[in-house]
Amino acid sequence: MGHIKAKAVNRQSPKRGDRREARRAQLVAAARIAFLAKGFAATTIEDIFRLTETSPATLYAHFTSKFALFEAVVQDEAQRIWNRLLTVLPAETCIPVPLGSFIATVINIVADEEMIGFLRLVIAEYRRYPSIEAIFHKTGPRVQLLISRHFQHCEELVGLSPECAAVTAGIFVSSIANVQLALLTGFAKPDELATLSERLTREIRAIIDFGNAPYMQGGQK
C-alpha cells in the first residue's frame, strides 16, 4: 500500500506544481497591469486581489510582500524583453539584413509604449529598491551584446573593418538609450517610433560612410 500511495503522490505532484506556477504567473501578470496603470506606490494589494479574484492567503503563499511581487514583475519583464529579442535575433545565428530593417525591429521592441511605461515605473522606484536596478543591470549587458553582434552583420557594415564595426555597434546601442530617454521625457511620442528609426538609420549610415573613408581604412585620401 505504501508503494502505491507513493506513486499516487508522484502523479499528483506535477499537477499541484503546475497549478501553483499558473497561479503565480496570474499574480505576476495582474500586478504588472496594476503597477503600470497606477505605479508601485499607489497600487494596493487589494487592487491585485480584485484583478485575480484571489484571497490574501493565496497571494502571500507565493510572495511575502508587495515588493517581492514587484521584484517578480521586474524579473519577468526583463525575461520578456530578452525572449522578444531572441525571436528576431537568434542567439546562435547572425543573418545579414538591411540596416534600416534591423534598426526598426530593435527599436520596436526596446522602445515600444509598454517598455517605456515599464522603464518609467522602474526609474521611479529604483532609489528606494536597489535590487530592482540590479535586475536590469544583470540583463542589460547580454541584451547589448546580442544587439551589437547582430548589428555588425547588417549588410551595410560588411565592408567595415572589425574595429569600425564594433565601434559603430556601440554607438547604435547607446543611441537606443537616447531614444528611450526621448520617449520617457516626452521629447518624442510613441507614435513617432518609425520616424525615430529612420532618423537613427540615417545617422548610423553617416557614421558608416565615415568609417568607409580611405583614411579610416588605412588608405590614402
TrEMBL record:
GO terms assigned for molecular function: DNA-binding transcription factor activity; transcription cis-regulatory region binding
Domain HTH tetR-type: 21-81
Record-annotated DNA-binding residue ranges: 44-63
Keywords (A to Z) from UniProt: DNA-binding, Transcription, Transcription regulation
Disordered, as annotated region: 1-21
Pfam families cross-referenced by the UniProt entry: TetR_N
Keyword DNA-binding attached: yes
InterPro entries: Homeodomain-like_sf, HTH-type_TetR-like_transc_reg, HTH_TetR
Keyword Cell inner membrane: no
PANTHER family: HTH-TYPE TRANSCRIPTIONAL REGULATOR BETI (PTHR30055:SF234), HTH-TYPE TRANSCRIPTIONAL REGULATOR RUTR (PTHR30055)
Protein name, UniProt field: HTH tetR-type domain-containing protein
Species annotation: Sphingobium lactosutens DS20
